[in-house]
Design a protein that fits this description.
single chain; alpha/beta; five-stranded mixed beta sheet; 10 helices
Amino acid sequence: MKILAIESSCDETSIAIVEDRTVLSNVVSTQIEEHKIYGGVVPEIASRRHAEAISLVCEQALKDAGLTYSDIDAVAVTFAPGLIGALLVGVNFAKGLSMSLGVPLIPVHHLRSHIAANYIAHPNLEPPFLCLLVSGGNTVIAEVTDYTKFNILGGTLDDAAGECFDKAARCMGLSYPGGVNLDKIATTANNKKYPLPYPKVSTGKYDFSFSGLKTAVLNLVHNANQKGEEIDVPVICATVRQRVCDMLITNTINAAKEFGFDKIVMAGGVSANSELRARMEEECKKNGFSLYYPPLKYCGDNAAMVGAQAIYEYKDGNLGDCSLNATATLPINYR
């Protein structure tokens, strides 16, 4: 079954052709350079650029796969969560394409897609497993009991881990995308020089809070600027990264032990973080767990992962029609 998949939830316009877990093409048009001058994604600009790019990206994806529209068996699209204007561009394009081709329309949840990026990279990976899904907008620990069945064990109560990285990087003068650049220049954490906090939560034991850490970095930098003091940016970056990784890894490993999982999957943009990968590998090896994460090209937003998840949504009867609408917020275990 050849699925034409569409992703437009933030600032990447991407279309892929996927057959089962095999990617026939995956075209990504990024807006990073345009949003860089604003220090982050401007939603209105993002949606306009999606509208301008989506037809050309679609043609290129078909060309790269050596296919025509008549070869497509279904159209899949990210419909939630994300920037509402950006999502609407993809959803409306997908509805028109599905109707004109006379093929099924498959709505796909963005977070489920990130998990499915691992199905492309690891053809033998199957549920059940425990997943740490961590990105700029979401931080969730979930039991994946089947391809379309999820149980949330914990999540962030305020900022996502990726947002914490991005905002900390921005206040230190690093360019967008902040989290990526923070990871690149980080050296060695120094907890004595920069004693940043570990925010505590009083709800579920696998929940997270990153707002306090972000605020602590903002205050540290602003106070130093007011006093005319220099800050050691690479060391602050490393200390922030260490704090975030400590919280992510501790909760994930403890959840795996409590709920009896020996397979851990990481997904989302922050799964590309170098320290998170290295330290999670160490912890999983120490505890006898298998660890899976996608290659860097599938960590960020892309349509290949949408297509990989779409086949399971299709088999589960999760289909859309011309009434399908975009949704800015929606939990991964919606139904």
